[in-house]
Amino acid sequence: MKKITLCLLLVISFLCLNCKKDNPVTPSMWDLSGKIVFNPVGGNHTGIYVIDLNSPDLSMSLITPNGDEPRVNSKGDEIVYSNSQPGAIDIFTVNLIGGVPVDLTPNPSLTDSWPDWSPDGSLIVFNRVFYPGFKEAICIMNKDGSNLHNLTDTSSLAIAVMPRWSPDGRRISFIGTTTRDALDGYNIYVIDPDGSNQVLLDYVGSKPTPSLPVWSPDSRTIAYAKTDAFFNLYLIDVITKSSSKITDSEISLTQQSVSWNPNGMLVCVGENVKDTSSYRYGVYLVSPKTLLIEKTLVNNFMPLPSTCSSPDGKHIAIFGTTKNDKTFALYIIDSDGRNFRKLKDIDNANTFIDNWQYCQWIN
């Protein structure tokens, strides 16, 4: 009798194990950790917010009510951002937990925007517009605002915008043009942090790109947009200057939200051109080797959802509005496409994030 009972227990245990394998339990939101900083516009919320994934109620806190273009430093404790001032736009920093913002560029005759941290958090690069004349330059300064100086020369480049630091800290990418005449077109450049070795990588179109170029984790490749007759995504090797167009026969990948996850795959937002509904945007994984969509993560979003990957690359956060729930909310999906779920309602369906780089998942 004992032998029969033991056999039955072994069989039941085996079946239970198989059931778990065939029917994995969807993990709760509590398998997530860290914080997500984001910058909503168009709805009831304005400013820069942080959602704490470690809190039991996924608490959302306002960091500063008037900030735009936030970037978090590598330590995850300080934010640099732009903010409108009377007659100007300045660069500010503020602690992630709040506090008194520090105006690093208090000059009423200048406009400063698109700030970004160096990987070690010691320097800040940004765009500056000089008046009169509307000359623009890429500038750099210490994190406290000291030693501020131009990287690019306004006599050779009339416009220099959208600077972004490479992950290894050795190069800075930006968009520029030699004159303010749109017929001359815009190019993507890289430059060393000391202002030397400025290199033109590629022509990007007769008008400014709608999104900031984004570096691959290994600092070898940049994803960027070209903006002539149509908006198209490209990758370029910063060493060989070899560029390639990212293509798909049915999905038109947009430039507003494209990022690299820590595993070296591209996370892209795309529009299903064959879908006539208003909810036809999805999130896709694109291989930088094949330049093709390898996996559809989720569909049925309104334009335009914004994404950011978790620091370990296991999850992707999506801010957007879906077909089934017409509320701007935070969603999470595993990087392999499983376990899509909504974490938190945020605002009404008119809300969005202006650029994917204005949401960041930090430890």
Helix content: under 10%
Individual helix count: 1
Number of strands: 30
Round the Cα radius of gyration to an integer and report it.
Answer: 23 Å
Report the average pLDDT across residues: 89
**C-alpha geometry:** globular
Poorly predicted runs of 5 or more residues: 1-25
Walk across the major sheet and give the strand order: 4-3-1-30
Share in β-strands: over 45%
| SS-based class | mainly beta
Report the biggest beta sheet as strand number plus sense, adding barrel if it closes.
4 strands, antiparallel
Distance between the termini: 55 Å
Primary descriptors:
single chain, 363 residues, mainly beta, 4-stranded antiparallel sheet, 47% strand, disordered N terminus
Outline the structure in words.
It is globular, with a radius of gyration of 23 Å. 6% of the residues lie in helices and 47% in strands. The protein has a domain at 30-61 and 250-363. With 363 residues, the chain is mostly beta strands. The protein has one helix and 30 strands. Strand 23 (281-286) and strand 24 form a beta hairpin. The strands form eight sheets. The chain has a four-stranded antiparallel beta sheet with strand order 4-3-1-30, with no helix packed on it. Strands 5-6-7-8 form a four-stranded antiparallel beta sheet, with no helix packed on it. A four-stranded antiparallel beta sheet has the order 9-10-11-12, with no helix packed on it.
